[in-house]
Amino acid sequence: MSSTRLELLRWQFDLTWSLFEYHLERLASDDFLAEPAPVCWTLRPSDDGNWVPDWADTEPDPVPVPTIAWLSWHIGWWWTVAIDHVEGRTPPDRTNIHWPGGGEPTVSWLRELRTSWTALLGRLTDADLDRPVAYPWPAEAGLSLAHLAGWVNAELMKNATEIGQLRMIRAAGSP
Length: 175
Prior knowledge:
- The protein has about 180 residues and is mostly helical.
- It contains four helices and four strands.
- It has helices at about 5-25, 70-85, 105-125, 145-170; strands at about 40, 45, 50-55, 65.
């Protein structure tokens, strides 16, 4: 049985999402901002009522352990930008991607991004996958929309695993 590249990418995405959904369904509001280590990245309230993620243009040493809040914002950021690139829209700056807050608002936001992404995948043809895309790498890398879709799957798998591990550690009784 053979599959097109698009069918394979969609299958991999759906599998990854189903594993992520297991953790999304079990997240408690207080899981999001729980700091798992003394050196961590999280989101902090700003004066304008939004949340601001910790950030450094050069990765610090030691690398901070991200909170579930930071990881969920990170997913929202890269996924919003990926969708905009595929749709041909100018993506917002990282600082304009606002985390909606712990609990159901963030879970809903991530599910809405999934809905947008799967609708977008449903409109693509296998031939569309050859179109050049300059995200998350520079244009001169010469990579395609197929590479971007594969990267989305890998990035989602990585971030879902990180969120799941942090959630399970808390559920098992660690801080």
